[in-house]
Known about the structure:
Blueprint: E1 4-7, E2 12-15, E3 23-28, H1 39-57, E4 61-68, H2 73-82, H3 86-103, E5 111-114, H4 119-131, E6 135-137, E7 143-145, H5 161-167, E8 171-172, E9 184-190, E10 200-202, E11 205-209, H6 211-223, E12 227-233, H7 237-252, E13 257-263, E14 266-268, E15 271-272, H8 283-288, H9 293-301, E16 309-310, H10 313-331, H11 342-353, H12 358-370, H13 376-390, H14 404-418, H15 422-434, E17 437-442, E18 445-450
Parallel strand pairs: 3-4, 3-12, 4-5, 8-9, 12-13, 14-16
Antiparallel strand pairs: 1-2, 6-7, 7-9, 9-11, 10-11, 14-15, 17-18
Helix pairs in contact: 4-6, 4-7, 6-7, 9-10, 10-14, 11-12, 11-13, 12-13, 14-15
Amino acid sequence: MALKFYNTLGKKIEDFVPINKDEVSFYSCGPTVYNYPHIGNYRAYIFADTLKRVLSYSGYKVKHIMNLTDIDDKTIRDSQIAGKSLKEFTEFYAEEFFKDIKSLNILPPIKFTKATDYINEMVSITEKLLEKGLAYKSEDGSVYFNIKKFKDYGKLSGLVLAEQKENASGRIKSDEYEKENAQDFALWKAWDSQDGEVFWETSLGKGRPGWHIECSAMSIANLGEQLDLHTGGVDNIFPHHENEIAQSEGATSKHFVNYWMHNEWVLVDTKKMAKSEKNFYTLRDVIEKGIDPIAYRFWLLMASYRTKVNFTWEALEGAEIALKRLYNLYLELDTEVGQVNQEYQQKFKNFVENDLDTPRALVVLWDVLKDKNLSPANKKATVLDFDKVLGLGFENLKEDIIPEEVMKLVHEREQARKNKDYTKSDELRGEINSLGYEVKDSTLGQQVYKI
Ligand code: AMP
Ligand code: ZN
């Protein structure tokens, strides 16, 4: 079976045919490094990682680039609040991001590109758009993209022309806005006092780039003018990716990206998890509760990347218990690694190649581990093979994993402590001890050890 993906551009499932059969070019919009990402953000990176793993599993070599947005409205605003230089401020959060993706078993791209390293490329695309009459300079020296001059504007997000004409009378300087507010957007922002020390002196004048031009410049510089794949969360479809298409295709006159793929939202109480909603959790919160970050990855894989998922701590704890059960089944296979079972492998491959159907692929994993007719050695080999896609860390499992019944008590104790029920918390500690484990309270939450 050929690889199939849902393409936001074609609005349907399509067979994947790469431009160059030997190497897939793949760009993922990365984090804005102005704070700790929340776990909703990590869905975007776990999705991109799963896609990359599936491509490799299907035999493709993948050239994957992810950017770090280290210059935009938010990084400037918050670095000033923190009283730090933009560089010092964004480097700190980039390092924190690297730690987080490691704990989620997300494979790094071949390169993380920092927006501030590509200012020349951004200026040169903007110059080209000015030359072609697709952009214009405003009174203050900023440069805007003229969306009415680009006939395909709206093709990704389905913004209709009539809607566009009605609203496209003005221009917008801020990086983020809603579809109802489609207007000419900033490619280059002339310096103003709010930018403080942050500016570049270029042929466009003193200023800084808009957010959208950053990804056009970084993807083209590293992957060429035409790409196979581009990913992000659904909220990137408009305006970010719509604007990327306009800038890139406007400048090169070539079709920019063949497959646009977007992950759906992580919700909390039916609302999108977002910093602005103050309904978010970070990976630090997960670790503080004594939950393995990989359980979050596992929880996400239980749903298609194209469905919304509602986050609750109970759901995550349930996922952790299920994951530990899988780990235990694997650890019971006290044997050498044998041969990958072809039949199971084909089943698994068909699912993951069908628009990353990880929920069904996980059912195949359970089937393998519970199959009484498969030899332990072949089970082990098959699980390790599947884990190249799932990234659940079977390879590095040690014998001392904490049994699920202990983890259940640890979670109950967490709840008791939250309720300030210290008598119950002490009782639970006793029960945990009687099962041969010890729990210690630290700044990182409860730490569990074998006695
Ligand atoms: P940002 O740093 O705000 O650009 O977001 C980083 C990535 O996270 C983008 O691809 C967003 O689309 C994605 N994202 C933001 N919030 C959520 C959410 N609640 N669920 C899933 N993805 C999200
Ligand atoms: Zn981007």
